[in-house]
Amino acid sequence: MISRIDLRGAALPEGSALRDLLPRAEFDVEAALEKVRPICEGVRHHGAAAVIDYGEKFDGVRVASLRVPAEELTRALDELDPAVRAALEESIRRARMVHRDQRRTTHTTQVVPGGTVTEKWIPVERVGLYVPGGRSVYPSSVVMNVVPAQEAGVEGIAVSSPPQKEFGGLPHPTILAACALLGVDEVYAAGGAQAVAMFAYGTEDAGSTAGDEPGCAPVNLVTGPGNIYVAAAKRLLKGRIGIDAEAGPTEIAILADSTADPVHVAADLISQAEHDPMAASVLVTDSEELAEATEAELKTQVAASKHVDDRIVPALAGRQSAIVLVNGLADGLKVVDAYGAEHLEIQTADAAAVADRVRNAGAIFVGPWAPVSLGDYCAGSNHVLPTGGCACHSSGLSVQSFLRGVHIVDYTRDALADVAHHVVTLAEAEDLPAHGAAIKARFGWKVPESK
Fold first, then answer.
1. Which listed site, 18, 57, 150, 367, has its alpha carbon 20 to 30 Å from 66?
2. Considering 264, 275, 343, 383, which one is annotated as catalytic?
3. pLDDT tens per residue, the chain (451 residues)?
4. Catalytic residue among 151, 246, 342, 345
5. Strand pairing of 156-161 and 242-243?
6. What pTM was computed for the model?
7. DSSP H or E stretch at residue 419
8. Is 407 one of the annotated active-site residues of the chain?
């Protein structure tokens, strides 16, 4: 059901050589670019009509209007299962606690008397938040995208999720209810690359057959996970819009030793495998006994699971999943750092100390009582995280994702005079004399002497 990679014995290779030994899903965004290019161009030139046409083609339903009516948002919330509403409210509450503490404050540094540089944090003006709607429904992704944007102070927030034939062309009602809970009233029934293009280019109207609804205004930033075509559209349109990341298949890596419970380990590997046939489940351990016990547990627990044949078994059996055997904990840390997992669980003795030694992970879950599922919903952390090894250079979604740091430079005449000769010298060293002239012009074309 799941393969093994045995790295015991010889010393581990370094860098890319080690990464090449580890399991990883194939996710060729470059190949998908040519498929999404005409879609994005169609939306650019034909606006809402193109988004509606592509929705009919790819989602199997033709909507009369892209913009979800306000009364549908209200209805979805009114009809929401009370238990689901309570769970979403708690998820929102915890996420707000964590993300509110991430907000940065303006800071001024006095470089010299009369010379200051202030870093001011300004929220992005308008964002488009994408919520997937394929094999599963993800109201939790609404929470994880909207909460940090709101806590950053973003004024314009639009959410888009694919239209569902089962619900008359509306996004899933639980997604609509989550938007209503968060006070987001600009929601669109659009999915895939066409939704990203809609956010990037905007539409003249929202797709109403009457043509009397306001359009989707272009956004500055698009965030949220999606399939390979969403990732490709993000790559194609990056520059016109900012993006959070090109999200690939979800991943879990578990670093475990002989103290780990194989029941927990197997359950957590399965929890990610049920997302998608391309989901990656990786166990890194120095305990062959744990590896064998986990394999036995996988057989038992998979048999009792849902989504077995279409998701879990293909994911666990795929090239992206494996049990990796290592010589010891030190080698295990090298492996998980090389892998750079989206989600990394530490199930070892003294797990907190081991977690502190990890360099590369989207999020780290410490010990037996902090499974990835907790982070997906109610830990307070964000579950929009870097995939495909990008955790070695990128962070998950946070309040910072929606903020821009702007430097404000304020110098008096005396403060500029004190450093003028250095500026002119560096300008001339770079053969940019006009840069120096901009300084000289302020002092009658004579560079002041340093005090």
1. 150
2. 343
3. 899 999 999 899 999 999 999 999 887 888 899 999 999 999 999 999 999 999 999 999 999 999 999 999 999 999 999 999 999 999 999 999 999 999 999 999 999 999 999 999 999 999 999 999 877 789 999 999 999 999 999 999 999 999 999 999 999 999 999 999 999 999 999 999 999 999 999 997 544 444 556 789 999 999 999 899 999 999 999 999 999 988 889 999 999 999 999 999 999 999 999 999 999 999 999 999 999 999 999 999 999 999 999 999 999 999 999 999 999 999 999 999 999 999 999 999 999 999 999 999 999 999 999 999 999 999 999 999 999 999 999 999 999 999 999 999 999 999 999 999 999 999 999 999 999 999 999 999 998 877 6
4. 342
5. unpaired
6. 0.93
7. helix 413-429
8. no
* Residue from 135, 197, 124, 125 nearest 160 by CA: 197
125 a catalytic residue: no
Q: Decide if 322 contacts 301 (C-beta within 8 A).
A: no
- What lies within 8 Å, CB to CB, of 192 at 6+ separation is 39, 54, 58, 59, 162, 226, 227, 229, 230, 233
Q: What is the DSSP string of 288-304?
A: HHHHHHHHHHHHHHHHT
> Residue 31, CB half-sphere, CA atoms under 13 Å: how many?
4
Q: CA-CA distance, 233 to 277, in Å (whole number)?
A: 22
